[in-house]
Amino acid sequence: MLREGGFLLPEKKYSGHELEWDLLGYGVPREARYDGRYLNFREAMRLVREHQPEGWDPADPPAHPTSFPNDLHFAVGEEITQRLAERSDDLSPEVAATLSEALERHGLQLFNALGSHLDRLHGVDAFFDFTIPVARGAGLAGEKRITITLDLTQNPEKAERGAKANAVLYIPSFEDYTAMNPEERTNFMKRQAEGVVSSLIFELKYSHAA
After folding, report:
1. What values do phi and psi take at 145, rounded to 5?
2. Contact assessment for residue 13 and residue 2, using Cβ atoms and an 8 Å cutoff
């Protein structure tokens, strides 16, 4: 049940892709929109990167008509900064150094994939790009991109078992993000950001081990 003005309201149930559209607010433009053809994951992601919704800046996602993308982008950046400051147990010195340098040089980019081949065929609603330096010997050999894919869902089974995406953002039917007060939104976003950053750190560890 949702709380509004002291009254109890019915749970906010969605069908199909309504949840994603309600929270992200936009879909990709025609150039990247699903048209019935099969595109592999790499090509589908390339199209999304090249064709974002009008007014959508991946480095600073819009706060209207919904603040969810901007709030998520900010919360993930804050979670990374906090883990670096605390030197959390899951951060090796090498991963911490990579994370810190990448955040300082490039920041985070959040891409919207709603309505694209990536969404319809590969189960990805949005994704973060994180560009990291690649060392070789005593110097830098260049950079490479770490991508953390996201799936927004109200399905508790998908949240429990996982999905095609790296991180599942579970929004229970009794939680309405648009109706939350600032403190509730901050706590909600921190939970989502923790999952995204844990996935990012896992990928960075794999990258260093490779």
Report:
1. -105, 130
2. no
Q: Is 137 exposed, middle or buried (0-12, 13-18, 19+ CB in 10 A)?
A: exposed
Report pLDDT for 155. Answer: 80
Instruction: Find, among 121, 191, 183, 192, the residue nearest to 152 by Cα.
Output: 192
Reported confidence tier of residue 97, pLDDT bands at 50, 70, 90: confident
Mean pLDDT of 167-191: 89
